[in-house]
Structure formats: structure tokens, C-alpha cells
Write a structure and sequence with these properties.
The structure holds 2 protein chains of 2 kinds. Chain A is of the alpha/beta class. Helix content of chain A is 37%, strand content 17%. The chains are: A alpha/beta, B alpha/beta. At the A-B interface, strand 2, helix 2, helix 4 and helix 11 of A face helix 2, helix 3, helix 4 and strand 10 of B. Bound molecules: thiamine diphosphate, iron/sulfur cluster and magnesium ion.
């Protein structure tokens, strides 16, 4: 049976504002299917976002939705989750939103390991403001602010999340919607802070400036760079330059090597805070 | 009923009053001279089942209290100068999205890192115009310890009544001052809560003006699934660029305060009956001014003081009346004239205005004020 997206969408707010063929739509669909997979009630979910094309997504979802300021979604979300720990909080953020202006909130949300799920749509650019370069624009590529080719080194958002303490981290591309759905679902189920990076096409801004002005060209470009994490583990660092490593970076499900777990969170934040309340009340 | 008389500091009273007003979420970031408020909150919030969190910066702290408040939990943040600057974008968000919350700023010298440990009243104007765009503003300026308690509760009540962020402005002197004070009976406190929707979710609009200028507010997770944005929006909460809707909404926002000005303005007259020279003052500076008034009266000088407990909005009609009859107006403040500039507009050519502006971090002394009173004769 076909999936009923209408059940989760505010149909009166559609058509959406995204360009035809934009990768964000694939991520939104994977996210809605994941909500169905875990069986959450719409009333119990808050979708929170910052500013950007990606961040417009919550507006179309029939839940409690909050479109905040650029980069700050995670801080609003932290307030919501701490005030209502039994509810579900999902954050939707662009690469610029999450790792440039919002970088500080990003690493600290990971560090706290608070039970929320962050989905980052990485389209390698600032889509909404006209295709300026972002912290994930590859070196040598063009943006409206790097017409001579970008020289700013890039973040690997998954490695950043993992190092900062997120306890579930995975990446998939919009070419593989099912894989994306699987990871987002696991992120929802995971107790702790989950980061799922969705590598997506922004053909209108990033693509057009790099001789890939239609969705298919950018998606093919993404496909040509994708390396599954199992394979990546057997490759040399130099061979992985410019590659998009997909798969699960940390799951906390199986035994990991010492360095993978080194300095990793030992508790989920809202549960830990409850122990503080208990202690404070004992002493009263 | 047993009255509780004990030693309290100003900072502790902000925390205590907030909790008594029903605040159950504090998001902060340490900064002198406001850190004590966060420290008290870290002890007391978990005791009352609330939440204290030290965020990664003041921007995040402001975001966190807006998020918590949207779920129905009254929220507070506290900061000083540089942190107040960082909070401004999200304070604007709270105005735009109409999310009740209280922002306490224990003022210190500026600009920039300025004078971290010395007192000032440097952010009177930032409290009014700190964030971009037009918005209503309510800012309170307590001068005494008992008043910190009373006005902090009032700040929460204003936040809930008008669905907006409220600025609570302390200065270093009263935040760090300690004394034995008697708090009012908790049972006698008037605590306001946001107006709740009376319609079922299908009929609910988060910015429905059918109920007046302050729309009823549903909390997240209660079944009213609605959208909140900092973009200009229509009554459903969705972005709009319709010029008429945007214009009407901005006018409504300003009206929330303008139309209720008589319930919001709050001032005290001291020795004003026959006063020819009038002092306009607020915060700890008003305490020095009060001593100066007493001393001047002993010399037979007819001087009085109007002290603002709420500095924004100002009681414009009253100020104008006083400016029309006063021989001279004196405005002492710990900044370069942020209130005097405003008073000057009322004074115009009706009377002369004399300023006392200290920004060195040392309190204005009663003698400083008395000397200007004598000059005004
Ligand atoms: C404080 C602030 N600075 C700058 C902007 C302008 N701005 C809006 S969206 C955006 C970048 C969006 O890029 P990204 O987060 O990657 O989202 P995308 O549009 O690519 O989905 C910028 C710089 C803003 N809204 N607020
Ligand atoms: S500009 Fe790019 S990111 Fe934005 S909607 Fe268009 S394709 Fe998508
Ligand atoms: Mg982007």
C-alpha cells in the first residue's frame, strides 16, 4: 500500500516553496516514514528548525512545529526537551545552519547527549540566500562567493558529531531514500543524541555554479563520490579525499574499539537531570 | 501566618520571586554581576521539580527559555551587558512569536567587556531598542530588595498577560546588596497565567485577534498542533508578506502595551506636593537621590522625586505635566544620559534639564545630587 504522506502533512500549506527536484523532499519523506515506523503520536512530536531552505520543512508537517532563528534550533529544542522529557523532539537543519552559525550549539547538543534527533540536510551550500559557500562546500568548487574556487577546508559533519559526543551518527544520500529512512528511524529509536546527515542536491544553487544545473546531474555527482563505511575502513586516507562516506559511524549497539568509545557519553541528559532533581529534593 | 524574615541578596530575590511566580525553567550562561542568579537557580530549580541548564552561550540560553515556555513552562534567563547583547536576536524572536519569558539584566559598564565588576545603568536603551525592528517593550527597574521580589513577580505576570519577553533591569549594587527583609505572604501573591484557548484544536489559531490584541496561547503537546515562526505571519502562524497583514500585526503588537499603559506604568512620588525642582530617577541611583532630597529639604529647598519602577513604557502624561510646572528637572543616571535624552523631549523649552552622568563605576553620591539641586535654585 502506498504510504499516506497526507496523514502527516499540512496539505493546505502545499505547494511548498522548494525548487522542483530539490533533495530536501526526499529527506522529508524519509522522516515522515520514520515517524510512522516508530508509531509516535503527532501531538507528542515537536519539529524544530533554524533558517534556510531545509528549515522550512517543519511548516509543512502536522505536528508542533517551530521555525526559529538561523543556527539556533538546537537551543530552542533543548529547552523543549528538558521541559518535556517524555515528548519527542526532532530538529531539521541545513549544513550552514547546523555547522556554521549553529556550530557551537551543534557540538554542545552532541556533548550533552540529550535524547533528540537532528537531521542535517547537507547540500554543500547556502541554498536559501543564493548559493554562498558553506562549511561543506568542497575545495575547488564554486559558490556565489567563491567564483575563483573555494579554498576553505570542509567539515565532515559525521566525524564532528561523533567526536563531540553524539551517540548515534549516520549518513545516507538522497539517492537512497530507504537507507535514509532506516537511519532516521534508528535515530528516533535511539536513546541519546542522534545525528543523521542526508547528502542532498541543491541543483539550483550549488549545481548550477558547478556545471550540474539539474537534479540528476548533482545526484550522479553524489553517487560517484559515495563510499560505504565498510569499504572506507579498508582504504587509505588520501583515497578518501572528496568522498562521501555513508553508513553508521557510531551506534552504541555493539562492542566498539576503545578509541571509538573514548570520551563518549555515559548517560542521556534528561535522565541524568532527573537524578539531580532527586538529589536536590532529598537534601531539601 | 508566620512571616519569613531572613537575609537575602538581590540576586537571590530574583531567583526566589521567579520560583514563587511559577517559573520552572532557567537557562543561563555565567557572567558577572549576574552569575549569582544562575547559582541560586541551579540549587533551587531541581528542588521544585524545575530545570536549570547552563547553555553554551547567551544566544543558546535565550533560545532554551523560549523553547521551554512554548511548552507551558514559565522561564527565566539572567545576564549582564555582553550577554544581553548576544541575546538580542532571540529576544526579537520572542517578541515576534509572542512567547512569554523574563530576561533579567544585571547592568554593568559598557560598551564591550567594559566594567565587569562595577555598577552602571548602561542598558536602559538597549532594553528598548536592542533587537532589530519595532516591538513593544516593558522594562522594570527595582531600587530596593523588597522591590526586586515584587517586581520580578510582576515581570512574570506581564510576560504571561501580554505574551511577550519582559526586561528586568537590575544594577550591580542592588543585585549584590544583602539585608534582612520580610517577604509577602505567598498566599496573598497575585500570579497571572497566560490565557488559554477555549476552542477545540480544529478551531484554534495561534494568533487569532478575535479575542483581542493578546491571542490565547496553546502550549506544545496539548493537541493544538500549530506553527511558530519569527517570520511575519498570519493568524495561523504561517509566513506572510501581505503588506496589510504585516502592518496590522505590527500595530497590534505595539497596541498590546500602548492600550494598557495605565496598567503597566509604575512610579513613586517622593516629596512632590510642593516641589519646584524635580528629580527623575530609577534603580539604585534613586536611593542616592532620595537622600539628597531629604538633605535639601532640611535646607528648605522644595525638591521632590519621581522614581520609575517601570522605566518602559514611561508615564508620558505625568512627565509632561511635571515638566510644564517644574523650575528645573534633574536626571541622575549611571550612563551618559540615556533617560535624560528622552526626558529632554518632554522638557523641551518648558523647563531646564540638568544631567548627572557617572560612568566610572562608582555610585552617584547623595552629595553629587545635592550639589546639582543647589545649582538649580
Ligand atoms: C543571523 C542570520 N544571519 C544570516 C541569515 C541569512 N541566511 C538565511 S538562510 C542562510 C543559509 C542557509 O544555508 P543552510 O543552513 O545550508 O540551509 P539551506 O538553505 O542550504 O537548506 C543564511 C546565511 C539569517 N537569516 N540570520
Ligand atoms: S535553492 Fe537549492 S536547497 Fe533551496 S529549494 Fe532550491 S534546490 Fe532546494
Ligand atoms: Mg545548505
Amino acid at each position: 500500500m502506498a504510504f499516506e504522506y497526507e496523514k502527516y502533512l499540512r496539505m493546505d500549506k502545499i505547494p511548498h516553496l522548494w525548487c522542483p527536484g530539490c533533495g530536501i523532499g526526499v529527506v522529508l519523506k524519509a522522516m515522515l516514514r520514520s515517524v510512522e515506523n516508530v508509531g509516535w503520536e503527532k501531538n507528542d512530536i515537536a519539529f524544530v528548525s533554524g533558517i534556510g531552505c531545509t528549515s522550512r520543512a517543519p511548516g509543512y508537517i502536522d505536528c508542533n512545529t517551530l521555525h526559529t532563528t538561523h543556527g539556533r534550533a538546537l537551543s530552542f529544542a533543548t529547552g523543549i526537551k528538558l521541559a518535556q522529557p517524555a515528548k519527542h523532539v526532532v530538529i531539521f537543519s541545513g549544513d550552514g545552519d547546523a555547522t556554521a552559525i549553529g556550530g557551537n550549539h551543534f557540538i554542545h547538543a552532541c556533548r550533552r547527549n540529550i535524547d533528540m534527533t537532528l537531521v542535517v540536510v547537507n547540500n554543500n551550500t547556502y541554498g536559501m540566500t543564493g548559493g554562498q559557500h558553506s562549511p561543506t562546500t568542497p575545495i575547488g568548487y564554486k559558490a556565489s562567493t567563491t567564483v575563483y574556487g573555494n579554498i576553505d577546508p570542509t567539515f565532515d559533519i559525521c566525524l564532528l558529531a561523533k567526536a563531540a559526543g553524539a551517540s548515534y551518527v549516520a549518513r545516507a544520500t538522497v539517492n537512497k531514500g530507504k537507507m535514509l529512512e532506516k537511519y532516521i528511524t534508528k535515530g528516533f529509536e535511539h536513546k541519546g543524541f542522534s545525528v543523521i546527515v542526508a547528502t542532498a542536491n541543491c541543483h539550483t544553487q550549488f549545481g548550477r555554479k558547478n556545471k550540474m544545473s539539474d537534479p540528476i546531474s548533482v545526484r550522479k555527482w553524489i553517487e560517484s563520490r559515495e563510499i560505504p563505511i565498510e569499504k572506507a575502513r579498508t582504504m587509505k586516507a588520501a583515497e578518501l579525499n572528496d568522498k562521501i562516506i555513508t553508513g553508521e559511524f557510531i551506534t552504541h549497539e555493539e562492542e566498539t574499539t576503545w578509541w571509538e568509545n573514548y570520551n563518549h557519553p555515559i548517560h542521556e541528559y534528561t535522565e541524568a537531570y532527573q537524578t539531580i532533581r532527586d538529589k536536590a529534593q532529598e537534601r531539601k | 501566618m508566620k512571616k519569613s524574615v531572613r537575609f537575602y541578596s538581590g540576586a537571590e530575590l530574583v531567583a526566589k520571586a521567579a520560583i514563587d511566580a511559577g517559573c520552572r525553567f532557567f537557562g543561563g550562561y555565567p557572567i558577572t554581576p549576574s552569575s549569582e542568579i544562575a547559582e541560586y537557580m541551579s540549587v533551587h530549580m531541581p528542588r521544585v521539580g524545575g530545570t536549570y541548564i547552563q547553555m553554551e552561550d547567551e544566544i543558546g540560553a535565550m533560545g532554551s527559555i523560549i523553547g521551554a515556555s512554548l511548552t507551558g513552562v514559565k522561564s527565566l534567563t539572567a545576564t549582564s551587558g555582553p550577554g544581553f547583547s548576544l541575546k538580542q536576536e532571540n529576544i526579537g524572536y520572542a517578541y515576534m512569536a509572542e512567547v512569554p519569558c523574563v530576561v533579567c539584566n544585571v547592568m554593568r559598564g559598557g560598551p564591550s567587556t567594559g566594567l565587569p565588576t562595577a555598577l552602571a545603568q548602561a542598558d536602559i536603551m538597549q532594553a528598548k531598542w536592542g533587537t532589530h525592528g519595532d516591538h513593544p517593550v516593558i522594562a522594570l527597574t527595582p531600587a530596593y530588595l523588597e522591590e526586586i521580589y515584587e517586581l520580578t513577580i510582576k515581570a512574570f505576570n506581564f510576560a504571561e498577560t501580554y505574551r511577550m519577553p519582559i526586561m528586568l533591569l537590575l544594577d550591580e549594587v542592588i543585585a549584590h546588596l544583602s539585608a534582612a527583609i520580610e517577604l509577602p505572604d505567598k498566599e496573598l501573591l497575585v500570579i497571572k497565567n497566560r490565557r488559554r484557548p477555549t476552542v477545540p484544536p480544529e478551531k484554534y489559531f495561534p494568533y487569532d485577534t478575535a479575542y483581542g490584541d493578546v491571542p490565547p496561547m496553546a502550549n506544545f503537546f496539548e493537541g493544538y498542533r500549530y506553527h511558530v515562526t519569527g517570520l511575519s505571519h498570519d493568524k495561523t502562524g504561517f509566513p506572510t508578506t501581505d503588506p496589510d497583514l504585516v502592518q496590522a500585526d505590527q500595530e497590534r503588537h505595539l497596541r498590546k502595551v500602548k492600550a494598557h499603559i495605565n496598567e503597566i506604568i509604575d512610579y513613586e512620588y517622593y516629596m512632590m506636593k510642593d516641589a519646584e525642582i524635580i528629580i527623575f530617577a530609577y534603580g539604585s541611583t534613586a536611593r542616592a537621590a532620595r537622600v539628597a532630597v531629604d538633605n535639601a529639604r532640611k535646607l528648605g529647598i522644595r525638591v521632590g522625586m519621581m522614581r520609575f519602577r517601570v522605566i518602559w513604557p514611561l508615564p508620558e502624561a505625568e512627565i509632561l505635566k511635571l515638566c510644564s510646572k517644574a523650575k528645573a528637572i534633574i536626571v541622575p543616571e549611571m550612563n551618559m544620559g540615556q533617560l535624560s535624552d528622552v526626558i529632554e523631549r518632554y522638557a523641551a523649552d518648558r523647563t531646564k534639564i540638568m544631567r548627572i552622568n557617572h560612568v566610572g563605576g562608582v555610585p552617584i553620591h547623595p552629595t553629587d545630587v545635592l550639589n546639582v539641586i543647589k545649582e538649580a535654585l
